[in-house]
Each structure stands twice: as structure tokens, then as C-alpha cells.
Amino acid sequence: MKALSGVIILLLVFQLAFAREVDDGDPLLNRPADRTYDIIIESGYLKVGVYENFPPYSYQVNGEPRGIDVEIGKRIARELGVEFRVHWIVPDENLGDDLRNNVWKGHYLAKRRLADVMMRVPYDKEYAYMQDSTGEYINEQVVLFGPYQQETWQIAFDPEKLDSVATVAVFQYHPIGVEIDTLPDFYLTSGLQGRMREKVRHYPNVTSAFEAMRAGEVSAVMGMRAEIDHELAKPENAAFEPASNGFPGIGKQVWDVGMAIKHTHRQLGYALEEIIGNLVKTGELDTVFANLDLQFSVPQYYREFLSEEAIARAEGKLQGPQ
Amino acid sequence: MRSNKFGIRIAASALALAVSYGAQAVTDEDIMNDANTPEDIVSYGMGTQGQRFSTIDDLNASNIKYLQPVWAFSFGSEKMRGQESQPMIKDGVMYVTASYSRVYAIDARTGEEIWQYDARLPDGIMPCCDVVNRGVALYDDKVIFGTLDAKLVALNKDTGKPMWIKKVADYQAGYAITAAPLVVKGKLITGVSGGEFGIVGKVEAYDPNTGEKLWTRPTVEGHMGYVYKDGKAIENGISGGKAGVTWPGDMWKNGGAATWLGGTYDPDTDSLFFGTGNPAPWNSHLRPGDNLFSSSRVAIDPEDGSIKWHFQTTPHDGWDYDGVNELISFDYKENGKTVKAAATADRNGFMYVLNRENGDFIRGFPFVDKITWAKGLDPKTGRPIFTEDGRPGDPNATNGTKGNPVVAQPAFLGGKNWMPMAYSQNTGLFYVPSNEWSMDIWNEPVSYKKGAAFLGAGFTIKPANDDYIGVLRAMDPKTGKEVWRYENTAPLWGGVMTTAGDLVFTGTPEGYLKAFDAKTGEELYKFNTGSGVVGTPVTWEMDGEQYVSVASGWGGAVPLWGGEVAKVVKDFNQGGMVWTFKLPKDRVASN
Predict the structure, then answer these.
(1) Which of B155, B342, B174, B344 is CA-nearest to residue B260?
(2) CA nearest neighbour of A154 among A216, A104, A229, A90
(3) What is the spatial distance between Cα B355 and Cα B377, in angstroms, rounded to a whole number?
(4) pLDDT one-digit tens code per residue, A193-249
(5) Which residues of B are catalytic?
């Protein structure tokens, strides 16, 4: 009886631990723990940094972390033989700020709080090796590695209002919803010499832009493909369709998304890189995406060395073992 | 640790002292008369007009060498960063805030703590604009201040216990409060700070006794203002008349124009004067138009929040020249007539003298050595005459390249930033804490935000001269001439105060409290407080002696930005103290 209740308590504690963050920093010196690979394995958990309130990538349902980045975080923790622990990230003005606040230095209001690994970090060599005006490498404190998704821009539209989206030029005449302060915002507000500007409607996120489309305020919504797919999979958005237009002059149409660690923790990086590489190549990641009604495209990084057959397997188009 | 017996005994005895001394409630009359009552400081600005001029003349050029420290007080904990507060004084008690939304009541004679209040900030809060706080308002038996999570907190002045807490805006949407509120005719007035995107600036009035909201006035064209009666919101007119006049599309909905530096009040015209921040988004090519009321000064009726007039210093701002800087009311004589004027030194490098009755432009002139973004001001309207190619380029027009960098001077941190200037009724001069720096801005095509490709701007701030960045200037508002200047190696980031003893006080990031001759600029006094001074000094009279106080603790926006300026300031240590000095009685007449 006693033993059983002990197990139950243990299970409860385990459940809670999932949702709550660990504070393993040094309270006396007010600095984060220096969690190298060995320390992570010994501690028995991996703190995975994911953005908060960011469906379908990472969000909460009844206090439980959900989303594709959470699922992948759980998979890599399992492969590493440790527990998954969530580290929520409040986005700052740009990626550089998020890396500083969550991967290598800590935010000045929460100096003990760092993730062991951060998800949803664009994998871009040009960004990784960017220099400032004095020649210093801006991102030298972090290592970007392990691309696990290819992300792209996408429009969904209301067929009641629009027959199709042949080109973005239709948004000179039809209102379109965007998340404020994103590339779609800038693109539609300034594209075509600003002729779509009057039709751009700003929302705090893609979910509220879809609400506005259901209310008839906008005829279309532009966002990232996974965000759009996630919304389109909801029953209340069943009437809407994905568009197949291009985005001329958008600058970056497609990009790889991977992870980041502190530059002194490369051993952890190598371990995670191998895990994520296997998940991509075996097609397991494709299954994880499909379970969440999302499309998986093999990142460009793998396309440069995998055969067409291997890419097809990774994207779930070939069954059977390698 | 703080609750040991000894500490309690000290706190209790100090409290008893304060109470037995007969601490009085602060009235509307006290606040309106603050500039003329040297024994207390009950308004931010040492008078609601914000002149920061003290009528005390005991301390002067001949005896300032005898000014001596009497006590220093540590704010404690590890929150040693950015002490931008102005202390208040009432009945021998100092009320001062520290960074991270903390308030202290201190025995002004001994430096012993009476009480301390630490606002409990939510986890995961990301304040846009550092962790500073600039001071409290005093009213009746309350000490009222704003927090980083955008709340107003009223504390009992004797115990430091909260009497009411009111949410002004949602910190998760990017709002904060860092400025000192002000009380005008029984109304508590506050602005809001906000990040770059999604927010709308506003000025609001609350009942200081209950925290009940009385009116709200958005500072972006198109938003409805409200007056609250019996819990009901009554429409009180749209700011600017209607939406979409000076903004394209729905961009007015998230137009920015945060009122983050608070305001001043002029009893002569019964007007609140608030400055407003830059428009959003940062890329000005997305929002053709003047984008009212961003980067402006707005005169507001304290009764119901109606806008009386506005003056926009940087229409269609593309340089992040926030227009929040304080508008100081002052009178001057011209051709035998008294002119009811007000002056402001803008981030954009121009100083403006306005008619405070109607907002008309009287004159404007540069108060920095070089301005690149504008050739000058229209002599009739004060509108800037933009320089060709002076505007940062459109990131979308560069097709994934960096485009040509634009050099803009002043840098976005401004010819003058938040730190308040002072006006001397003796000399008729404004003492302006300013900085000489420029910025390179270019488009950053390789940029990401929240896992997505983005279009950002890159910039570096550069000192304009090899040997100094900060310049304390004496400016003549009638001629636009610089009467004297003091050059400082590091950028100046602290407020200024001047006295009837013809002294000008300010602090430096190097740690000094300094005093200058108000007529000549000669440096007369310096004392190193141990950390950079970015607070605003005050002076008052107690037991027949003149006191001076200033908060010390390096921080604020300067160390947040890298580049070549960082090299000048990187070795400055942070801190958290308030220092108090006095001129001993027997030294008043000495030479």
C-alpha cells in the first residue's frame, strides 16, 4: 500500500515536472548552471527551449506542452535517455535576442534561466557567420545545427470571396490578414509599390487572422505553411483553401529550421545532430508531422547529400527499411 | 536576512521618528506650489512645470567647496542597474524608487530606511525599455508609482503597505510604466511605455484615492477617448477626429506613440504636456504620411483628456527620434510683453520654443553640433526640411542586399534622451544634457524572428568626436545661442537641476555628481558616488540647511547598445545608491 502510493506520488511529480520548469541555476551567484553533455545525462533531464503560445510549433493545452517542437524535443530527450523538460521562450525583437536570453547568457530579469537546447532556430550559414561592422562574429556564442524542418510562406483564402489567388496582386482589391511585424506584414505593405497597403489587416497572430476570415473581415491570410496547415485542419476553417501563388521579391521564400546550443556545449550538439539526422532519414519525423496534420519537407541541408530515394523515404513516400 | 531583530528595531524607531515629526498629507496646493516651497519636493520636476529650478541660494559658487556627503543609502539586493529616479522629500522623509520597480522611504536626516516595497514582477516579463523607474507621485497619505508590468501601485506613506493596485495596460502586449506619475487637481495622471510593435500610446487619469479610472486619451489618430462616470465609459471624441488621415490602411491601430516619459503640467494654461514616442513599424516606407500623434508634444485638458493642441517635431519619423522629451513651461519678456512659452529639446537635435497657449511655433534651432537628417526648420511652422537621401532606405527595395547604409546624426539615442533639462529663472537659460553621436543604418536581409525569415535593420552608433560624447549646454531660448558648454568623455544620461545660487548640477556615467557655474559653465564641484549617475539631482532645505541628493547606479539604455560607444562605457560598474549632501549652516556666509 505504502509502496503503491509512493509510485503514484512519483507519477504525479513526474507529470507536474513536465509542465513546470526546473530552476537549476546557482542562486548564490545568480547565474545559470553550465550544463554540459555529461551533466545533462547525469541529471536525467534535457531542458528544451520552445516559444510559448506559438501553435502549431509549441503551445499549451490544459497546462501541458504541445506542438511539433515539443514532440521533437520529447523524441530527442528519449533518444538521449533523459526526461524532457520544457523551457518556455517569450520572443524578443529578433532571433539574436532570443539566443542571448535563452541559450548563452540569460535575460537580465532571469539570469539563472537557460535552455540546454533551443528549437525552431533557422539553420542558415550566412546568419551563423554574420559579422558586425568591426568584423566580429555576431553569433559566435552559439552553434546552430540539426535542421529538422523546411519552412515556407503560404496563403490560405476564402473561396466565397476569391476564386483563386493567381498572384498576390489580388490583394490590391481584397483584404488580407497578417501577423503584425512579420515578413508577410512588410511584404504586403510595401510590395507592388505599396498598392496592397490599404488592404493589409494586422492581427496579433495567425489564429486571430483566421478568426477574422471567418467573420468576413479578410478574404485571405498569409503566414508560415505549418501555421496555415494547422488552421486549415480545424473543422471551423474547413471552408478555406490553401493557395498556390508565388511570392516574387519576398527575399526569403524557403528556409531550414534547426536547433541551437551554447558554443561551449558542442558534445551535446553532436549527440543531438545524430539523433535528429536519424529521425529525418528514417521518415520518423514525417510521421510526427503527419500525426499533427502538418506537412514535412526535407530541409535543404539534407537535399545536398541524400539521394532522391533517401529523400523520398524521409518524406514518407517510400515504405520499408533502408 | 532583512528581518533580523536589529533591523526591525531601527526601522521601527525611524518610523516613530517620522510619525512623531508630524508628517502631513500632501495636498493639491502643496503640489501646485512645489516650485516655491524649498522645504519639500512633492512633484517630479521640482514643480509641475518641470523647470527643476530651486529658489534656495545658500549654496553658491563661493561656498560649494564645503558641500559634504551626510549619508548614503544602498538599494540592496543584486539589482544593481540603471538608477534613473528623482527623489521626493516631504516632512523629513525621502521617497525614492530604484530599478526593478522598487520604492524606499528613508529618513532624510539620517539615511535610515523606514520601509521598502518591492513590486512582485511576473515570471517571463520582457520589459521593452530596460528595468528603470524614474520616481513616485505623492498625494494625501499615498506614495504612488508605476511598475514594469504596467500597474499603478499606491502605498501608504508611513508603512509602505499597498492601498490599491491598478492595471493600466497589459504587460504581455508589450506595455510597461517607467515614468513618475503626476497629480493635478486631484487626478493622478500617467502615460505608458511600450515596445516597438502592436501598442498604442495613451495618457490616463485615475482617482488617486481609489485607483478608479477617470479618463483615457489615446495618442494615435483614430482611437476613441473615454471619460468614465459611475463605472460607465462615455465616448469623448476620437483623437485627431477620425482614423486614416495621416496613416495608411489599418496601421493606426498599432501606431506606437508611447507616452513613456510622463508629462508636465502648466497651471497658467491648465494644460498637461506629454511627449509621444516614434511611430510603428520602424520602417517608415511602410507608412507614408505624418503618422499623428507620433513624435509630438500634445497639450491635454486635465479635466477630461481632450487634446487642446499638438506640435509634431519629426513628422513621418524614420530614425526612431522619439518625441517624448519633456516640455518645460517658462515666461520671458520680449518688446515689453510677457510671452507664455514652453521649450523642449528633441531627440532629433532641434530645440523648440512654442507658445504654450496654442502650440504655435515661435522658434527652433539645433542644440547639437551637427544634424544630417534635416537641413533646418521651416521658420513659420517649425516643420523639418528633410535632407535628400537622409532617410534610411526601404528594405523591400533592396532585393535581399544590404543597400546603401545611411549615416544619420544624431543617433537614435538622441541629441538628448530622457534625461530632463533645467531652466533657471535667474539666468533665463536652459541647461541641456546632450550627446554628440551618429548612427549608420542599413537593411539586414539575413534576419530572423520567431523562427521565421524577417527583414531587419542593422545599425551602429558612433561617437562624433574622439574625446567626448556628452555635452552639457547652456542654451538661450531667445536667441538659440549656446552660452557655454561642458564636454564629458562618456555620454550624459542623468538629469539636470539648477538653483537660485546660480549653480547647475548633473551627474556623469563616470560616477561624479558635478556642479557648474550657471553663468560661465566653470566646473565648481565634483564628488564620485562610486557608480555612474543617471538619476536626477534635487535640492531642498531642512533644519535651516541646504541639502542635495542624487541616485547613483550606472545603467539605462546606453550599455544595452554595442558599437563604438560601448568601448567608452564598458568598464563602468553598476550600482544602486542614493547619496545625500549638505552645506553646513556655518558655511553659508563663508567665502
Answers:
(1) B174
(2) A229
(3) 16
(4) 889 999 999 999 999 999 999 999 999 999 999 999 999 999 999 999 999 999 988
(5) 320
B553: left (phi over 0), alpha (psi -120 to 50) or beta: left
**Angle B302-B303-B309 from CA coordinates, rounded to 5°:** 55
Tens of pLDDT along B142-167?
A: 999 999 999 999 999 999 999 999 99
Per-residue pLDDT tens digits for A141-179: 999 999 999 999 999 999 999 999 999 999 999 999 999
Question: Which residues in B lie closer than 8 A to residue A127 (C-beta atoms)?
Answer: 446-448
CA quadruple B88, B90, B94, B97: dihedral positive or negative? Answer: negative
Buried b (16+ CB within 10 A) or exposed e, A104-136: bebbbbbbebbbbbbbbbbbbeebbebeeeeee
Question: Left, alpha or beta for B543 (phi > 0: left; psi -120 to 50: alpha)?
Answer: left
What long-range pairs does A131-137 form, CB within 8 A, spacing at least 24? Answer: A132/B458, A132/B460, A132/B562, A133/B440, A133/B460, A133/B563
If you write DSSP's letter for every residue of B273-288 in order, what string do you get? Answer: EEEB--BSSS-GGGS-
Structural domains in chain A, CATH included, are 24-150+255-314 (3.40.190.10), 152-242 (3.40.190.10)
Extended strands (E) in A180-244: 200-203, 220-224, 241-242
Q: Do B460 and A132 touch (CB under 8 A)?
A: yes
A130 touches chain B (CB under 8 A): yes
Question: In whole angstroms, how far apart are CA B35 and each of A3, A119, B364, B506?
Answer: 74, 56, 27, 19
Residue-by-residue DSSP string for B302-317: TTT--EEEEEESSTT-
User: Is A257's Cβ below 8 Å from some Cβ in B?
Assistant: yes
Contacts of B283 in chain A (CB under 8 A): 186, 190
Residue B118: is it exposed, middle or buried by C-beta count within 10 angstroms (0-12/13-18/19+)? middle
Question: Looking at this predicted complex, what is its ipTM?
Answer: 0.90
Grid coordinates belonging to A273: 545532430
Give the closest residue to B135 by CA, choosing from B185, B93, B83: B83
What digits encode the pLDDT tens for the residues A52-81? 999 999 999 999 999 999 999 999 999 999
Measured CA to CA, the distance from residue B406 to residue B285 in angstroms comes to: 15
Chain B interface includes A18 (CB < 8 A): no
Q: Do A186 and B440 touch (CB under 8 A)?
A: no
List of residues 6+ apart from B417 with CB closer than 8 A:
B325, B347, B435, B493, B557
| Residue B361: CB atoms within 10 Å | 17
* Cell numbers given for B455: 527583414
Cα B231 to Cα B211: distance, rounded to the nearest angstrom: 12
DSSP for residue B419: S
Any A CB within 8 A of B78 CB: yes
| A199 three-state secondary structure | helix
Measured CA to CA, the distance from residue B259 to residue B184 in angstroms comes to 17
CA B292 to chain centre: 21
pLDDT in tens, B258-309: 999 999 999 999 999 999 999 988 889 999 999 999 999 999 999 999 999 9
How far is the C-alpha of A129 from the C-alpha of A132, rounded, in Å? Answer: 10
* For helices A284-291 and A266-281, angle between their N-to-C axes, nearest 10 degrees: 80
Nearest residue of A to residue B128 by CA position? A92
Q: Mutate one of A189, A208, A253 to test the B interface: name it (highest B CB count within 10 A).
A: A189
The contacts of residue A133 (CB under 8 Å, 6+ apart) are B440, B460, B563
